[in-house]
User: What shape does this take?
Amino acid sequence: MVDENKPLLGEIEEEITELSATATATATNTARHVRTKVPEVEIHLFRQGRGPVVVFKSALGGWEQDQLEVGDILEKHGLKSVFAFNHQSRVRGVPVRFNPKNGRSILTYRDGAVVYLDGEPKVC
Assistant: This one.
């Protein structure tokens, strides 16, 4: 019978086993960190077909972490819109559509993808 007052900690408790002296010495020298890889894409940003003006990595967002943060890119680089761009033929493609509420792209991207964007600057 299961005791209802007892918390269910057995599944998440960490067990530490005895290590040899050399393994213990190396373990104390390095800090324990749990890191997860954040999905990101490499963006080559052109401005009116010239460039690339800047090449940077951008983290993907959204529930499944597969959407480009278009709103942040527009704001950071002073653009009013971005378009898909063919860097070999220097031809601008369709506009990159995004949700105006959260700034994330409608289309999804894969981790490690290289994205070529052409931006239209804001006219102040």
The first helix runs from residue 21 to 29. The beta strands are 40-47, 50-61, 67-69, 79-86, 91-95, 104-108, 114-121. The radius of gyration is 23 Å.
